[in-house]
From TrEMBL:
Domain of life: Eukaryota
Keywords annotated in UniProt: Disulfide bond, Electron transport, Membrane, Mitochondrion, Mitochondrion inner membrane, Respiratory chain, Transport
Keyword rRNA-binding: no
Protein name, per record: NADH dehydrogenase [ubiquinone] 1 beta subcomplex subunit 7
Cell compartment(s), UniProt: Mitochondrion inner membrane; Mitochondrion intermembrane space
A Pfam match: NDUF_B7
Residue ranges, annotated region (Disordered): 1-38
Main location: mitochondrion
Function: Accessory subunit of the mitochondrial membrane respiratory chain NADH dehydrogenase (Complex I), that is believed not to be involved in catalysis. Complex I functions in the transfer of electrons from NADH to the respiratory chain. The immediate electron acceptor for the enzyme is believed to be ubiquinone.
Family classification: Belongs to the complex I NDUFB7 subunit family.
GO cellular component: mitochondrial inner membrane; mitochondrial intermembrane space
Membrane topology: Peripheral membrane protein
PANTHER family, per the entry: NADH DEHYDROGENASE [UBIQUINONE] 1 BETA SUBCOMPLEX SUBUNIT 7, NADH:UBIQUINONE OXIDOREDUCTASE B18-LIKE SUBUNIT
Amino acid sequence: MGTKLSVSLEGALSPETAPRTDRPPTFDPQAGFERPRKERVMKATWEEMEQFRLKPGQRDYCAHHLIDLMKCQTKNAPFAGHACDDQRGAWDKCEYDDHLMRIKEYERERRLLHRQQRKELA
């Protein structure tokens, strides 16, 4: 809740050092890392996501876990609550990890923008 407010305030007060969340990163994703970072790959195909009618907000790197959860729920209906706890836990953990990764990437981009501005002023 507070993150959204601080991001919008920072973007309004100092737009030159605020990362754009609607665009790809401006810096090399491998810069500053000793070993190359593993690129994230979508495991669910667009056809599967269309078949299960996933909403645009659900079509992320965790879609394959959500599809497994939906399969389990249809298979075990109407008692899917406890039967699909493992799938729900895997999907929740994936969503949490994805959220943390996006926060870290935003913060990395923000710090690199501040660094770039300091270098230009010096």
